[in-house]
């Protein structure tokens, strides 16, 4: 085979890419329509490998908005080009392109019985960190692998945290709290019944539209009632979330609910601290074996500016890592676990609304740190 080159895919490559896709995979294939989508998508990198003007391989990476995570979505090499290092060259080019787009990590999933691909990934520094059962159309299992594609010196605090997907559009708070509690007490099994119980205890009743979200003090109270020491940290003493509500009646209700949460917190020994929430404090809480929830704005992820609770799972010199209980159409659960968000981006995300609300819930099975 003559020398090979790697370049961005163009519209002229759709047919050879589609033919390669169908020859390389028995199932889980990309359609022409999806190939055309990823050719134009701003959050995708689609590269082809060419030899003698023939497409002999391709690779597709998805870049997740608001995070420093890239995901290898597909990698295929033609039969005649296998064993010549084409896959390694494509993957290396994808890593470089993703790194230039500011991504720090590449993740992928690979069939557990695909020993050739696993050997390739391991030779390039990918390591298994989890497994999916019954993942592919043929019901085979998948390994989850990850590699840091940009080096950094890290001071890493991590907490092994099970992931749970919220079952409604308004229960991100309960879902995040269940993940946090389960990280400290594995006997807690997140499920929809517990999720809705917590929402009823913690809801603000109303929000800008639709059902109410969850108040930080309400979430702290829910944790306290389940045997955890808990504190709600908020950077304002004003009632939360009423800025986007136009109805005066709804504002009155939300203000009353806010007042009740403060009253119940005093009665049930839940600390309510009016203070700024810094990344240094989050790092200290994690180092003290606490679990932490933080409210973010989703604008940098989906452009909707919605308040959204996530569970913080780790922190290092570059990023905070979160479990996001929600997924979008291009994500799988793997993409929402230990999501790397740069410190700079997180600083912007974690200030919600025009009033720049910053709030966190800290829980522990041990006494909370005195420096809280």
Automatic annotation (TrEMBL):
This is GNAT family N-acetyltransferase. Keywords: Acyltransferase, Transferase. PANTHER family: AMINOALKYLPHOSPHONATE N-ACETYLTRANSFERASE-RELATED (PTHR43877:SF2), AMINOALKYLPHOSPHONATE N-ACETYLTRANSFERASE-RELATED-RELATED (PTHR43877). It holds the Pfam family Acetyltransf_1. Signal peptide: none annotated. CDD domains: NAT_SF (cd04301). It comes from the Bacteria. One of its GO terms (molecular function) is acyltransferase activity, transferring groups other than amino-acyl groups. Residues 4-150 form the N-acetyltransferase domain.
């Amino acid at each position: 085979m003559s020398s090979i080159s790697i370049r961005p895919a163009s519209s002229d490559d759709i047919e050879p890419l589609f033919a390669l896709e169908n020859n390389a995979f028995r199932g889980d294939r990309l359609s022409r329509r999806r190939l055309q989508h990823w050719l134009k998508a701003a959050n995708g990198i689609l590269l082809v490998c060419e030899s003698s003007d023939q497409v002999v391989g391709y690779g597709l990476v998805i870049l997740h908005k608001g995070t420093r995570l890239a995901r290898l979505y597909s990698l295929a090499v033609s039969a005649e080009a296998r064993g010549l290092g084409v896959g390694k060259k494509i993957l290396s080019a994808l890593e470089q392109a993703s790194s230039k787009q500011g991504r720090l990590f590449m993740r992928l999933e690979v069939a557990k019985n695909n020993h050739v691909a696993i050997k390739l990934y391991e030779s390039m520094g990918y390591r298994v960190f989890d497994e999916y059962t019954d993942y592919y159309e043929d019901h085979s299992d998948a390994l989850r692998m990850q590699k840091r594609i940009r080096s950094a010196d890290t001071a890493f605090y991590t907490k092994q945290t099970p992931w749970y997907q919220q079952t409604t559009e308004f229960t991100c708070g309960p879902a995040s709290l269940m993940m946090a509690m389960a990280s400290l007490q594995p006997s807690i099994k997140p499920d929809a019944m517990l999720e809705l119980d917590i929402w009823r205890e913690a809801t603000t009743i109303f929000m800008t539209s639709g059902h109410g979200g969850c108040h930080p003090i309400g979430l702290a109270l829910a944790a306290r009632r389940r045997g955890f020491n808990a504190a709600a940290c908020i950077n304002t003493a004003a009632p939360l979330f009423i800025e986007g509500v136009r109805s005066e009646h709804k504002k009155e209700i939300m203000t009353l609910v806010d007042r009740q949460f403060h009253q119940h917190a005093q009665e049930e020994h839940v600390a309510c601290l009016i203070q700024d929430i810094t990344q240094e404090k989050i790092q200290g809480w994690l180092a003290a074996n606490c679990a932490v929830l933080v409210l973010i704005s989703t604008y940098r992820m989906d452009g909707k500016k919605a308040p959204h609770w996530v569970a913080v799972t780790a922190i290092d010199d570059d990023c905070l890592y979160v479990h996001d209980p929600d997924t979008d159409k291009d994500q799988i659960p793997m993409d929402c676990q230990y999501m790397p968000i740069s410190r700079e981006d997180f600083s912007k995300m974690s200030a919600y609304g025009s009033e720049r609300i910053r709030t966190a819930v800290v829980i522990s099975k041990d006494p909370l740190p005195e420096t809280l």
